[in-house]
Structures are given as structure tokens and as C-alpha cells.
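hey can u check if this looks right to u? its 145 residues, i copy pasted from the old doc so theres a chance i mangled smth
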Amino acid sequence: MENLKDAKAVSKIVIRCLKEINSQYYPPNVINSMIENYTPKNIIKSAKEQLVLVAENIAEEIVGMATFSNDIFGSVFVNPDYHGQKIGAKLMKALEKLAKKQGSSTVTLNSSINAVNFYIKQGYTKGKEIQDGKFGKSIQMTKTL
């Protein structure tokens, strides 16, 4: 993703999710660290190191994003206005298909506290809890493809 317009759209979605949803589960210092991680500049930089998938609506506006590198899935965020429309599930299926095509038999991700049930519904299994001073608590999850 070298397009600044797309990076700004992704950044806006992620920051909105962090402020409106994740802030109910994480303290302000963790939310602020995450927000710093998702500036348009950092998204463009990150896209050079990992695959960034986006989901668009009919008007071709970005409404969701997901990242993938090797057997590890990174961030998955969907515009809150589009929650409940299976966009996150479709992004996960696309990531899983890519991982399988690359020869992966198992994938892992670190889920935010608020997204654990979403991943369980996608067939992921809860693993160990991870505590990070900058990004707070997450849960490692795995799925056999």
C-alpha cells in the first residue's frame, strides 16, 4: 500500500475502532500507543513488510483491513458502521486462503481482548495470554487450515 489516500482511509478506520471499541477494554496509554502505530506513514511502511488486504464497499471506499506475514495474521479492523456485515469474516477467509496457498497448515494471531469471540467464531483456538507494556494484554490464537 503505497497510496497515501488508501493509507489515510485505513488509518482512519483503525483509529476509530481503537477509540470507539478497544478503549472500553484498554487504558488510554495503550490506546495511544496503538494509535501511534497506525498513522498513514506507518501503514505505508508496514505494507512494505507484510501483506495488507482491504475490503471495500460498493462505492469503493475502504471499510476494513487485515494484515498477513508468513504464518502470522496481524491486524484486522472493520469500520464500526459495517460491523455485523461479515466483512471481518471475509477478510479472515481471504487471509487463510492466501496462507494455505503459501503452504501454511497452521496460522496464529494475537487477539485483542475484545476480539477473542470473533476469532473463536472463525474457528480459532485460544492459547496463552500475552502481556505487553506498550500494547496491553492479548490472547494468542491458532487455527489449523
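The chain has a mean pLDDT of 93.
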